[in-house]
């Protein structure tokens, strides 16, 4: 079992930046593929980014070029750097860990709210 706790969400103006962090406990993150999902009000949950055990990454088209996912296995932490934020990025963001290298969803954090004002 692994427990995930997100932090770093908040309110930001359009064009601004935020960095989300996901701290893990219970197991080392290095054995998992890691992901960030988000869910906006009235919308389905969507995959935002994945970083695999190898360090390779995947991004949804909607965030490509603006968001960067990274991991620090020594700190057991995953990050999501979000730049050039848009109101459409407003959502609850969830950190995940799992054994799937394209949809890691075995473990979920509680989520952190990101609100982008226009």
Summarize the structure.
The chain is an all-beta fold. Helix content is 0%, strand content 52%.
SSE map:
Elements: E1 3-7, E2 10-13, E3 18-25, E4 33-39, E5 46-51, E6 57-59, E7 67-72, E8 77-82, E9 91-98, E10 107-108, E11 112-117
Q: What does this 3D model show about the protein?
A:
The protein is an all-beta fold and 118 residues long. Helix content is 0%, strand content 52%. The chain has no helices and 11 strands. The protein has strands spanning 3-7, 10-13, 18-25, 33-39, 46-51, 57-59, 67-72, 77-82, 91-98, 107-108, 112-117. The strands form 2 sheets. Strands 2, 4, 5, 6, 9, 10 and 11 form a 7-stranded mixed β-sheet that branches. The chain has a 4-stranded antiparallel β-sheet with strand order 1-3-8-7, with no helix packed on it. The radius of gyration is 13 Å and the shape is globular.
User: How much helical structure, as a percent, in the residues?
Assistant: under 10%
Structural class: mainly beta
Mean pLDDT: 96
Number of helices: 0
Strand count, sense and barrel status of the largest sheet are: 7 strands, mixed
Give descriptors for this structure.
seven-stranded mixed beta sheet; single chain; four-stranded antiparallel beta sheet; 118 residues; mainly beta
